[in-house]
Amino acid sequence: MMMVQLGQCNGILGQYPKLSPLVRRRKERIQRSMSLQAQALPSRTQRIMESIAVEGEVGGAGGAYSYNALKRLDHIWSSICSTVTVSQEPQQVVSSIPGVTSHSDLTGKEVDKFDVVVCGGTLGIFIATALSAKGLQVGIVERNVLKGREQEWNISRKELLELVDVGILEENDIEQTIAMNFNPNRCGFEDKGEIWVKDILNLGVSPVKLVEIMKKRFISLGGVIFEGCSVSSISIYEDASVLKLSEGNILSSRLVIDAMGNFSPVVKQIRRGRKPDGVCLVVGSCARGFKDNSTSDIIYSSSSVKKVGDSEAQYFWEAFPAGSGPLDRTTYMFTYVSPQPGSPKLEELLEDFWDLMPEYQGVSLDNLEILRVIYGIFPTYRDSPLPAAFDRILQFGDASGIQSPVSFGGFGSLTRHLGRLSAGVYEAINGDFLDASSLSLLNPYMPNLSASWLFQRAMSAKKNSNVPPEFINELLHVNFQSMQKLGDPVLRPFLQDVIQFGALSKTLGLVMLTKPQIIPSIFKQVGIPVLLDWSSHFFMLGYYTFLSTYADPVIRSLLTAFPSKMKYEWKRYLEAWKYGSGLDYKL
């Protein structure tokens, strides 16, 4: 009845411009009432998420699945977007105190002493176990129960076997953790052609099983876990770091490893609340009801740039079979954005996801049982990896920014760098090289990581960029087509987030030869300042390649004659050249 009356009022408005005050007030009340009713209606995302039974949250990216957790993360994302460029002073978690602990107010208090304390256990358990296996006393502080998330991690067998090389897993442990194996794997961009590869990100690994195996191994090596505890402060003395936990425990450690992820309070303090330079927003689902479910998509785009709220976005897809059942499939939709007012919220992306995913996957949403809704924010900074800002504290994993800016998961980069980092930390502990300068050598400048910034910028949609909406897909298609022509030594490292000078030079050269008309649009899309900055990193990538190839063998033969501190430093330089040029990657 209300709708009929409103329609009649609208009809009257069209015929009689002047309304009596009584009719006008009545119309305004009806409009306000309808507006409030519309606001009160739950979104499709809310209805779907609240219909799913959700277990307790676990630590790490993607460890929460509830609608309330989504709203909390969207609130964090909105605050990042609205933050002014002026640096803000976040909570001061770390403080430096002159003197030694024996002359502090800790005398007479119960203090648990360790060689290393790792804050953040989901990914921190890996380096904690590696250091425990070397004979160090290691503790882990984890604010939740130390447990892997239900959603699987995507990885290649080659990367997974690096955990065996480090010595923290056996090969039969690896087999126990693999929930799913799928081939072939597709890359494609808006019907411009497809590239199929094998054995790239083709394993679904169960974090629940993997973290549980690591946890048992860590405890068997004498490790101690403080579950349900969070760090309230870290005091740096001349001889130790002292951690006070919110639950009252006091821990003393020669070194603190910050593995608290992208939103680590220590990293916030170091970066002084600065906005990320770029962000990867990810939403998705694990759903049951996919009959054709044997292959995966590494990266796929089914449309051009589209408008989302007040901004524009280029959506990409990743999809793969899930280990929970033969009809179960995980689908991610992700996009790269610059954090600014008007940037799309995760819930807005999820609303698009429900519209676009059925067409992309060739299914009807009504025929799917949604098992989990997935979402995440992955901020990245151009000055990554993050050097140590304090004595006796080192960032690790996502907190260090060691992952590629085009990746939205740090597990692959963790496996790649774990051997290097665990060996370096062990040497730093043994030699007492725990000042900020020495620790920074473990998170050095890596030109291949910095060069990846151009790719994120090129894949980010911009308002008023003066390039066609299909440009990003066209650019990616041309690059992937060129890499395919150049073969596995070029394509496979890139798909595993490893940039190498030779491969990149060949790809860029072939793109310019086969599609020179695309070059002006690249300048418009990324901007000349970004290209100039990238050029310096490209030069350094070539320089690091030269040093690792020709200077490394000469210097390595002299290492045994160096004093211990000098030997430690030069080993880190050699590692920086090797990993910073991507020459650690072997087919």
Over all CA atoms, what is the radius of gyration?
26 Å
Q: What does the overall shape look like?
A: globular
**Helical run tally:** 21
Residue stretches low in confidence (pLDDT < 50, at least 5 long) are: 1-17
User: Would you report the number of β strands?
Assistant: 20
**β content, as a range?**
15-25%
Q: How far is it from the N-terminal to the C-terminal residue, by CA?
A: 71 Å
Q: Structural class, from helix and strand content?
A: alpha/beta
The major β-sheet equals: 8 strands, mixed
Return the average pLDDT rounded to an integer. Answer: 90
Range of helix content: 40-55%
What key attributes describe this structure?
single chain, 587 residues, alpha/beta, eight-stranded mixed beta sheet, seven-stranded mixed beta sheet, 42% helix, globular, disordered N terminus
Q: What does this protein structure show overall?
A:
With 587 residues, this protein is an alpha/beta fold. Helix content is 42%, strand content 19%. Strands 1, 2, 3, 9, 10, 11, 12 and 20 form an eight-stranded mixed sheet that branches. Strand 15 (306-308) and strand 16 form a beta hairpin. The longest helix has 29 residues, at 528-556. The relative contact order is 0.11. It comes from Salix viminalis (Common osier).
